[in-house]
């Protein structure tokens, strides 16, 4: 399943997320465990793919935070479940 096949089909849902405060390496570690194959910045599984952007820094006043854009493409029938599981794996608490 190639990128062009997934994006061209109406069987898939695509969502782009800007994830802040989580280094790219954490996404890579999680996705390497769940993906069937990896090509460059894209991780492929059964009916889904996730593409990671390069990590960048955003400044907020006197501090900066890492930002990674995550593009998730999944079959419509599994998209919500995949997204929920993905987000749960990257929940953070703070105060």
List the defining traits of the structure above.
32% helix, globular, Mopterin_CF_MoaD-rel_C_sf, Ribosomal Protein S8, Chain: A, domain 1, alpha+beta, single chain, MoadD_C, 6-stranded antiparallel sheet, 3 helices, disordered N terminus, 95 residues
CATH C-level category: Alpha Beta
CATH topology grouping:
Ribosomal Protein S8, Chain: A, domain 1
Gyration radius, in Å? 14 Å
Look at the structure and give the mean pLDDT. Answer: 89
- Could you spell the SSE succession in H and E letters? HEHEEEEEH
Provide a descriptive summary of the structure in words.
- The N and C termini lie far apart (42 Å).
- Strand 2 and strand 3 (42-45) form a beta hairpin.
- Strands 1, 2, 3, 4, 5 and 6 form a six-stranded antiparallel sheet that branches.
- This protein is of the alpha+beta class.
- It has three helices and six strands; from the N terminus they run H-E-H-E-E-E-E-E-H.
- The protein has one domain: Ribosomal Protein S8, Chain: A, domain 1, CATH 3.30.1370.
List the helices and strands and how they pair.
Elements: H1 3-8, E1 12-20, H2 24-34, E2 37-39, E3 42-45, E4 48-52, E5 56-60, E6 63-75, H3 76-88
Antiparallel strand pairs: 1-6, 2-3, 3-4, 4-6, 5-6
């Amino acid at each position: 399943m190639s990128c062009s096949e997934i994006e061209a089909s109406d069987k898939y849902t695509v969502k782009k997320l800007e994830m802040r405060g989580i280094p790219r390496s954490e996404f890579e570690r999680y996705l390497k465990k769940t993906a069937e194959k990896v090509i460059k910045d894209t991780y492929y599984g059964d009916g889904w793919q996730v593409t990671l952007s390069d990590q960048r820094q955003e400044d907020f006043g006197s501090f900066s935070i890492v930002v990674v854009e995550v593009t998730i493409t999944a079959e419509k029938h599994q998209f919500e479940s995949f997204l929920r599981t993905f987000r749960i794996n990257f929940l953070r608490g703070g105060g």
